[in-house]
User: Fold this.
Amino acid sequence: MSSREIRSTKTVNETSTEESTDKIWSNFETKLKEWTQNVLPTLVEEPLKTNLKQIVYSEVDKYVSSSAFQNALSDSLNFDIKSFEEKLKDKANKMADLEEKNKLLQDKLEQLEQYTRRTNIRIFGIPENKDEDTDQLVREFCKKELSLDLKNEEISRSHRVGKKRMLSSRHPRPIIVRLARHNTKVEILKKRRELKSKKRPFGLQEDLTESRRAILKYLRDEDSDFKISKAWTIDGTIFFRPSCEPNTVERCTTMEECRRLVDKYI
Assistant:
């Protein structure tokens, strides 16, 4: 083999060796990179996490136990409680104001409703018939029982009130009558004494709102500790005489006012 061939063979072998070495190193670099990215973090992460948690918990425990934290917490709670109390107080004041306004509004509406009934009366005890004409029944009642001759135009309207009952019922529904003039109402109500003196099975009463009817019921409650000798109404205002002081006359238009007056005699 000539020297030239020998040199050529060496060159080929050296080249092949370098290529193999490069390939091995490249594979090693790839494996090392994969291990560094995938395996090494798992080997370091858990110890770091554990140590970090221990350090954080330890520092938190120290701060929570310190006077600085307790003072800060106390100041914060006192501020929040005071702020909360102020808000509650403000809301309570607003609620009280709204309740007062609502009560005044309800009282005014109730007074207005009673005023719209200023010419109304209720008649109790008139037998109920099928296809009846209540205007005619009222006129006949006034003429026969009260000796009052009412004209057609003196009655604005009339009708039965309450839940419908059997026609044969011993307690027919009352008739509510709206009269054209207030004076006619006064004239009719003055005749109540005559009905009582004759012991007739009829009754006459001003047409009151539901709340004022409740006041009369409360005053006339037989089971109550408070007794009255008499109770009556004039244009929606309720008057009563306490049994314990028969010369005294009290007046009221609301249940609250009535209870306050009654409490004086119990």
Observations:
- DSSP finds seven helices and seven strands in the chain.
- The radius of gyration is 50 Å.
- The CA atoms of residues 212 and 254 lie 7 Å apart.
- The mean pLDDT is 81.
